[in-house]
Amino acid sequence: MQVSKKHTKWIAFAILVIVSLYIIFPIAVVVMNSFKSRLFISNEPFALPNETTFVGLTNYTQGLMKTGFFSAFGYSLWITLASVFFILLCTSMLAWYITRVSGKTTSIIYYLLTFSMIVPFQMVMFTMSKIANMLGIDNPIGIIVLYVGFGCGMATFMFSGFIKSIPIALEEAAMIDGANPVRTFFFIVLPMLKSTAITIAILETMWVWNDYLMPYLTIGTEYRTIPVAIQYLRGGYGSVDMGAMMAMLFLAMLPVIVFYLACQKYIIKGVLAGAVKG
Question: Is the sign of the CA dihedral 132, 136, 139, 143 positive or negative?
Answer without folding.
Answer: negative
